[in-house]
Amino acid sequence: MNNFFQDFKDNLIKQYFECQAYKFLCDSQGFNPSINLNSEADIEKVPFIATTLFKKSAEMFTNLLRVPLDVIDKWTLSSSTSGDPSMVGRRKCDIMKIKELDDLNKKTYKSFSNQACVFFPEPKVMREYKSKVVYGKSTESYIGNILDVSDLKDNSIFLVKPDEDNLIVDMDKFKLFLETHNGLENNISICGSTPLLFDAINILQKTMKPLNLGKNALVNTFGGGWDGKKGTVSIGTSIKRQDFVENLSNFLGIPEDNFIDSYSFTENTFSITGHYSKEYKDYLFHVPEWGRMIIRDIKTLKPLYSPGDRGFIQMLNAYGTTTFAGASVLVDDIGEIVSISECPECKTKLMTIKIIGRVRGAEAKGCGATLNVRSEK
Ligand SMILES: [Zn+2]
Q: What are the residue boundaries of the Acyl-protein synthetase LuxE domain, all occurrences included (predicted)?
């Protein structure tokens, strides 16, 4: 893992030959990775697979594998409010790659802690939650994949328990955790699901005095849910990032600088991590050197490069997609370019974006139409 472009090209050429559906897509667009991918600048020409093609209802997910069905280890299933999840075949080696890239991320963000309080169920419970068998392989959520290989310490506290079809937060345990660390400036982290954490804090605020967890505490959210929904979890309202950070920072006594959020999606391998910016009143996400991102116009799908431009997020993966055609995927989440080359706040020399969220209403309609046109190719 040292030269992204070469590794990406190798991955794409293999995908082209291993996945008939992807080869068909490339051929129909007159693109052959062995011939047409010669420099970083050519990456924007690489055909992408829209995440809608991984939906169960599209009945393509077995055709999007790069290996025979019987050698995959599991299906990663997206959480879905619509009942039509994505199905992504993975082997252990690809899941370990997710972990490897995540560990690299952690090093960059120094997200060290002695004890974590996690707004997700414990790994075993998370893996088995609503798991089904499809073509002989178990389904598991992306969070389940990640928790399964995470090296969260043994003293981690998992606050979420399934209660029949719902997930419930153990509020007494959370309260105890907060009281135990109050005023001590311990190295602790509060991590996991945004809506569950936000909801829990709103409940505590009614009966508890503000706390002072101090400058060594971190709030590290991941798994999305800023629209207030995540699978069966719903708090019925979208969460403004500024409100989330300011509210939690005030109540928990944790500096706003100590808030980070990670973004990825079921069909992708590397996650991008954002640090909260007081100036932007939003998280600024860096695209790490081991991945690439292109923001594409919602209507024309043309690549965009100027600060302030908004569009669909396309992720280019060099690593961790040996099981499925995930080298180049377009998702219907909207990102906004902050800078193509440098974070304006911490000056890291990486592409920096804000995550805007899912497309809605008229935009969503346009997106659906555009994606269908593409998928018919
Ligand atoms: Zn930065």
A: 9-372
